[in-house]
Amino acid sequence: MINGLEALGSGQIEQIGGRNHVKQPAIIAHRGMVHEAPEHTLAGFSLAAAFDPDALEFDLQLSRDGRLVVCHDLKVDRTTDGRGRVCDLTLDELKKLDAGSWFGPEFAGERMPTLEEVLSLLARTGWDGTIYLELKTVRYDYPGIEEALAATLLEFGVAERTVVNSFNHHSLVRMHAALPGIRTTCVDGSRMVRPWAYVQSIGSAGYAPHASAIDQELVDECHRAGIFVIAWTVDDAKEMLRLARLGVDGIITNRPDVMRACLSGE
Prior knowledge:
The protein has helices at 4-8, 42-51, 91-95, 115-125, 145-156, 169-178, 195-201, 216-224, 237-246, 256-263; strands at residues 12-14, 21-23, 26-30, 55-62, 68-70, 130-135, 162-166, 183-188, 206-209, 228-231, 250-253. By secondary structure, the chain is an alpha/beta fold. The two termini are 35 Å apart. Residues 1-5 and 9-22 have low confidence and may be disordered.
């Protein structure tokens, strides 16, 4: 496996005021290109691939018949014209839902994609960045999702450029068992004490707290422990620059265009 820090960030940016250079954090596009197209659709991922971020982040659940589908909410109500929980609907039922009209009429008929469809699309575009996948296993555990993901990553030959993350750290342990050597990131919304030690203890390579919890000590201690740091979810240019100065390794953002512009000094 390639080292997590090398996979997620490269290059340098110049700090405001002529101070020393710091490593440029990876631009991680959240759910596609969500300011230009509906989230978690092939249209959005196609636009994101053309933008060419360092990484693409998207969420995974299982349909009632055990297929890996790309969706954030446990229910389909917000982003489709249907109702109900993803886990209660078969793939055929999910595919009948319109996942684009809510965003704009030009996206009418967009469907909820499977993981296989997204990976196939990315392969066709030639985009070769890091694939940053979140297992939505907190409120519903989706038995077997880790094994299904492991099999798909191996089938498509993308395991080495994939990072799996979750708020459910038991799911990450199961992911390690299903696919030894896979890089995982502990997502945290609780401001845990000495997270670098905890992350090491469960075999993860990265730590992803909310951006507001990140300070210089946290970044430095994680890096000393060989743990990369990912911030979520940041759309403000000033906050992006603050995190870059601290040396975070990646920033999940709904505005990869804003991040690219502010880090390049535009």
